[in-house]
Structure prediction request, 449 residues.
Amino acid sequence: MLAPSLWQEILCAGRADLFLVVATIIFFCAVVHALCASTIAHAVKHRGPVIHLLGEVEAVFGIWALILIVTFLLWPGKGWTSAVHYLVTGNYNLNAEAAPANKFLEPIFVFVVMVMASTKPVLQAAKKLLGAVVNWFGGSTLARWWVILTLAPLLGSLITEPAAMTIAAMLLSTQFYALKPSNRLKYATLALLFVNVSVGGALTHFAAPPVVMVASKWGWGMSEVFNQFGWAAMATIGLSNFGYYLLFREELSSLGLVREKNTDEKLSAPITLLHFIFIAWTVWTLSEHQTLWMLGGLLGFVVMTKLTSQWQSPIQWRGPAMVGIFLAGLVVLGGLQSWWIAPVLVRLDASTLLLASTALTSFNDNAAVTYLASQVPALMQPGVLADGLRHAVMAGALAGGGLTVIANAPNPAGQSILGSHFEDGVSALQLALWALFPTAVAVVCFVLI
Prediction:
């Protein structure tokens, strides 16, 4: 008997449970909403805070996750019990035996570590480190450009990608874009920043959202992630920067130098060390799957910042909360998509899957791509074949994280900081075109290294 075609298999699964089809329609509505978020933001700019949420990229998946839960409640034969069972265990089948799982551990982790990494001592320590390296290389604009686009993304593996994006974008804004480079160099630099941050967080298992979302499910610790992606990520950053340096070397050498007043306050070394201890605690609780210990660490961190307020700035809650909501919504929506994703992915070889993952990431957050892949049973199995497919999915998601603003969760933060330097705003087409080269470099490096 011939095996059913892809369309026949998906059609059969959809007929067997119409609710899954509706859940997928809701998911695709969320994807389309995310693509249109920037347009919506301009249209509803002055319509009030509630309507304004419709234009927030990070809020999109949370909004549609609520719609899915309402659908659960209204659907015949499901209701409150089914909704709670799914949210707590991650198991859609109410009759199946399933022990409670830490379903939202990864989104909570990203929220907590972003709160800790976006504090003044951590940001200032990273900024001072970058400044010291720049001065060691002579302090020229070229040196600033190169160091910021190289070291800041790699720091993302320690202080998280959103924090690295914030630091790099702020430094580029005041020390590079303020010199008014050509429009071509502006876009090339922004594209490098987005791609480099996307791959630069792949040296550890706790900094890049697409890695965090699957590391525990696929049994990846720090050594596994670094061995698979770390060397390739560093090679990608170096080769991409060098390629655009060759293209723009004359302009980079001719730019002047911005002299900034040193307004940084002296930081307390013990306080800074305490911040990194709390971050290390949070990473450890992730590896041990201890959500309550993680939240307990956050509570202790908040108390510590209050007791040391003279060395602190106000804790930034909004950005981490929005990213956490985005990832939590992704978990809720993505958990019901394996019925159609599995038949698609099992028919792809590793090379095709890598390219497909890269392309999908361009119009959907890379954490969404890897999380959806983690729902496929074939990728959970041990063996060389599954290892190759998991590597291909992750490599594509990391490589494609700079193609668009919504391809990687930290990208909107970078655009909001640097967008004012573009006269007509950041063009999505120009960004994608200039990101093609570093994306291609990343794909090649992840395949060969």
Observations:
- The mean pLDDT is 86.
- The chain has two domains: 6-101, 106-448.
- Residues 222-254 form the longest helix (33 residues).
